[in-house]
Amino acid sequence: MSxxxxxxxxxxxxxxxxxxWIGISVLKLMGWRVEGKIPDLDRGLLIGAxxxxxxxxxxxxxxxxxxxxxxxxxxxxxxFVPVIRIFFHWLGGIPTNRDEPRAVVDHVLSLAEKxxxxxxxxxxxxxxxxxxxxxxxxxxxxxxxxCPIIMVGLSxxxxxxxxxxxxxxxxxxxxxxxxxxxxYEQFDGRHPDQF
Length: 195
Fold this sequence. Notes:
Elements: H1 17-30, E1 33-35, E2 43-49, H2 55-67, E3 71-76, H3 82-90, E4 93-96, H4 101-114, E5 118-122, H5 137-145, E6 149-155, E7 160-167, H6 173-184
Parallel strand pairs: 1-7, 2-5, 2-6, 3-4, 3-5
Antiparallel strand pairs: 6-7
Helix pairs in contact: 1-2
């Protein structure tokens, strides 16, 4: 059976067939599907929202494996506990300490320079809890990486991961946040009241 390609050649992972099969199987068992294609870029910052439950992580990791995307993703350092740290690193995880934001940016920029092609993933809310105002760190990161933002949405009501629009930061963080938040109004998280 041929599996459709949703990722351009230069951004495909070299993990092999079995991890991809696992990702596809997990999504299928949960009744989810990934729609859309990763744009033909050499570098991108992927944001995923809404982030309202721990299930978002499971769906995101299964999606990354299923579409065979080579992606590094940022998450708080406290989830990288000794037992699963190696697995998270294999999946592309980068532990981040919010008390050291400059070190995180430097690490990501160094990684991007080392890799010929790269997608960096982040949740713009930075937490599963309801936040009134998103932080602007992901916009600064996209500007530092000199790349567009790939906007990916989760729709729990229809069980779809939707690879959507590209957004090019303008430098006006306030206006950019309004536009991005408006775009994400079409999606619904597991706990809509948290978004």
